[in-house]
Amino acid sequence: MDKYYERIPQEMFEFAQLDSEIHDEKFKTKARGFFADAMLRFKKNKSSVVAAYIIGFLILFAIVSPLISENVFHYTIEDKDNVYINAAPYIPSIAAKEWGIWDGSMTMNSQSQLQLDMLYAIGQETGLNPVIGEPVATEREEMYRGKPRKVYSYAVKVNTYYKVGVKNMVMSYSEFENIQKWQNETGVQVIFPAVDKRDIYPSKIKDLSSIADNPNIWYQCTDNKNTPKTDSNGNLVPAYCTDKEKEGAPYNSIRIEGDNGDYIYSIAKSGSVLVRVCYYNYFWYTHDSEPNFILGTDTYGRDLFCAIGKGARFSLIFALFVSIINLSIGAFAGAYQGYYGGWVDLICQRLMEILSGMPFIVVTTLFQLYMAAKVGVVGAFLFAFVLTGWIGMANLTRKQFYRFKGQEYVLAARTLGASDKRIMFKHIFPNALGTIITSCALVIPGVISSETSLTYLGIVDLSKFSGTSIGELMKNGQQTMTTSPHAMLYPSIFFSLLMISFNLFGNGLRDAFNPSTRGTED
Amino acid sequence: MFRYSLRRIGLMLINLLIITYMCFALIRMLPPPELPQGDPHTTVIMERREAMGYNKPIPVQFGLFLNGIFTRGDWGISDKLYFGQDVATIFTSKLPASMIVNLYSIIWTIPVGIALGIWAALKKNTWIDHTISTLTMVVISVPSFVYAFLIQYVLCYKLGWFPFLMKGGSDYFSWEMFKSMVPAVLSLSFGVIAGFTRVTRAELTEVLTSEFMLLARTKGLTRRQATIRHAFKNCMVVIVPSIFGEFISILSGSFIIERIFSIPGVGQLYLNAINGPDYPIFMMDTVFYTTIGLAAGIVVDISYGFIDPRIRMGSKK
């Protein structure tokens, strides 16, 4: 073949392109960087995307829930109500619809007829009937003075908030007047007429001091067991005090039905007045909003909705801080060790071995004992996390540096005269970045988890710093689990969701940045 | 191999000594717990502290401490929680409860976990695998105290099958005791099952797709034969060491579970010692936990070498 070319005359040849430029064809598609590529792979992983949305929602919850509590319902994390303790979730507007949710209900078992009567009486006086639905009666035979008789006991579903009924409260004159003013504005009855024990119990009972004070008894009783006396129609007979001598302060506000101006609304105490207030309405007065505990209250009578948000805020911010600090320390230490090797590496490895050998709980305890007084509980906690937390990161970076430092591009860079620093952080580090980022996403849930465990155990007490923590809420909830499961349930749900979604998210991120660790593809 | 093991153990002992010294120094630098006013034991306690070297330099104190341990097995005397009792005796009396609860939980969970992992790996990329993997992820993420709450609420309170707390006394093998341990054992189990499922699945899927499996199939083995004879053996290289590690760490118990179910174990003792504060007990617990942690790591590492002849540890290439 070659020979033939020689026979072709020279003038037959012609330049292919003398005028036109030669160039490669331009890429039709857009170039995709490392991160965009990872992002695409991440989006394919449905569960991680869902997890990312859930994390977003939980973070939003942490930001918004204390704001809602403070601005809409007017209670903060410091608001500890000593009456509504471990009360069930309650939203008045939804409770009124009788759907059986958010009605603040609890079931009281084995209530006697007398106790049931008293619940109904509370409803009759305050207009807020605590009994929800019909009580379920169980009949049982009992021997009474040698004869069998039937005894009923009731399982009754009550509204935890209404159940409190009326409470005795000692308050200053000005407070008493403020409440009256508020009553006139809103038309909500807070103050109820005073009662005197003498009027309640029949005169044959001489020793009244042996009967416990019960502000919810406003009706006449036939004996010292508070058995109500009924008139011919079966109605309760009020026993309100009309003795003007005892009145503590003038009352010029709305009066209850059936009062023709005789009842007194306060009893004089030295420098103050004793008043019967309907607690539900009193709460309304003090907080300028009805009780609106979306997730109920905890052991200290705090709003759980707000407390979970506050605790979560701390957890998330703290975890973020710890991760950033640990990752930076770890990355630097790992980079130096991996790059220089030799005795630097050896010493660092021994140091890391010792530090990682210390049980974390011991480290935290010692730091709390030592530093809490100087740098605060949170500072000491942070140090404890940082002391051992950077080791994992350092090991990871070190491994990456060992892997890359012998490669040709590093050699090329060194030949061109790049300094060690430049090689480490401009050439090797970006290549190791994928691994580092992915471990970051798994560090955060780890920190949150240990933080919660330690506050749960009570080794670290954050209540002074952030008001509360999820661990503390769960610790308290656990103790009252049988009577108020919601106090444990909601923090648990929140925390579990946070953990699950962070882990799913982290795994998705890891798979996206390091497709090789995903296991073999089919 | 033998020399490697010896070297690792030697290094571990040095690490243990350093960590113990650090903790010891930190604890001794704290002011000793205040004695109640007019306590009749004041002179005895002061004498005892003097003998422990409270007024001497820390290294001397540490020497005295080690001397006591090695010559007499003396870990000190509790000065608050169990006033006047020997710390080592208290400690060993707490150990069985922790161990038994943990032992029960891993005895049944390891087979279950491995079985689930194998199942998921064999049915890879089917709905079975997806369900098991997702559940594993979920179960691993949820902490044990949430399980403890659910179990206590549902099984103990609503259904009334088990008592709320662990029974007192030391009849650890009676039926009553076993029954009272079940909630705690269950709460611990979920995490262990999920852990083993995850490891087994990951390892087995990798082994199943490796080239020697292809060879095994090519030379005429059925899928079943190939899986049982070749794949399982190889994936056990990773699983068996972690079982060893798990067995070592049963000693340490679990702080949270022990507190919730009031198990009289070492974890509970540690928490009480912090709140006491009872430094001698705290010190012994610290040494104990450090030892367990270091030992578990070493046992895992060394057992790799024994199980898999391909791994030559410590040899120079």
List keywords for this structure.
heterodimer; A: 522 residues; alpha+beta; 4-stranded antiparallel beta sheet; 3-stranded antiparallel beta sheet; 17 helices; 7 strands; elongated; B: 317 residues; mainly alpha; 12 helices; flat
Topology record:
The complex is a heterodimer of chains A (522) and B (317).
Chain A: H1 2-7, H2 34-44, H3 46-71, H4 92-95, E1 105-111, H5 113-126, E2 131-144, E3 147-159, H6 160-163, E4 166-171, H7 173-186, E5 191-192, H8 197-200, E6 267-269, E7 272-278, H9 279-287, H10 304-340, H11 342-357, H12 360-404, H13 408-415, H14 420-457, H15 463-466, H16 470-479, H17 486-513
Antiparallel strand pairs in A: 1-3, 2-3, 4-7, 5-7, 6-7
Chain B: H1 2-29, H2 42-52, H3 58-72, H4 87-122, H5 127-141, H6 144-158, H7 175-208, H8 211-218, H9 223-249, H10 255-260, H11 266-275, H12 279-307
Helical content class of chain A:
40-55%
SSE string of chain B, helix = H, strand = E? HHHHHHHHHHHH
Average of pLDDT of chain A: 82
Which chains share the greatest interface?
A-B, 40 and 45 residues
- Termini separation of chain A comes to 49 Å
> Could you say which structural class the secondary elements and strand pairing of chain A correspond to?
alpha+beta
What global shape of chain A is seen? elongated
Give the low-pLDDT segments of chain A: 518-522
